[in-house]
Amino acid sequence: MSMTQQATPAVDTPPAPGQKQSDGRTRQRPLALRLLARPEVGVFLGAVAVLVFFLFTAPPVRDGSSMANILYQSSTIGIMALPVALLMIGGEFDLSAGVAVITSALTASMLSYQLTLNVWVGVIVALLVSLAIGAFNGWLLVKTGLPSFLVTLGTFLILQGVNLAVTSLVTGNVATDDISDMDGFTQAQKLFASTFNVGGVNVKITVVWWLVFAALATWVLLRTKYGNWIFAVGGNKHSARAVGVPVTFTKISLFMLVGFGAWFVGMHQLFSFNTVQSGEGVGQELIYIAAAVIGGCLLTGGYGSAIGPVFGAFMFGMVQQGIVYAGWNPDWFKAFLGVMLLGAVLINLWVQRTATRR
Length: 358
Known about the structure:
Largest sheet: 2 strands, antiparallel
Shape: globular
Strand content: under 5%
Number of strands: 2
């Protein structure tokens, strides 16, 4: 008998038709976990829960005009929450966003009225001022390396003081003059603050702009190179720079997008009420940031979506108006928002851990 044995070659059996070959290292995760990995899923479920809650506890919410009012309140928050969310995905946040809205409105109003110009001149100059404020924030952050908290806190204090002091100096009052009878006002009002009728219900144009901006932001994030840059600089700016991402341009342009949002909301306020109170806007920046956080954006950057803040803003509008329609004490509004914010953060944390668990 031979003391050696001939090895039998291994035979690879091809997979049966219709079956995918797997090496055991990669495995398709269940659909539920893949859905949970989406940053907007948690806030969507939360928004549905809040809506159902107020539909039962506040019967006036079921009326079409009430829902239109809720959507309007949501849109004024949501338009600003979108660029704030993009900035947060890029790893930064802006504490001056609230007062920047008022700065834009004050610039357009006082420039047009005091110099007796067509209001469109004031609108365009206000846009340039808002973009310049955003560019300054971004430039200072990139050049100094200071945290965005410190940079934008300084801008917040500067704008707050300038809004009050310049308005008082120019108008002798805490508010601007009425510009409703000036040239170009009617046309500008149609763009920024008009109302249209849907099924007998009056809907503000800001609701349409809100949804258009949300669709555009989603397309930018998911389908463009710029969207990849935003996620890259938010995840790790040094690694992003090493692979050729223009970090400086991306950071500054994101702050300028916040400036654009502040301009648009400022124009809406101006052409809705014809005048602007110089002391308003303080605290609104926290609402915008909270809407983005509730929408799934992380303060650490690199994660989030544009759809999530839409639902986050809707939750804010729903709670703000739902408390009124339910006949409750409106003093509970901020407490409710605080609980909602903490709950959203905890849910988002649980969702991420569940979605990434092997």
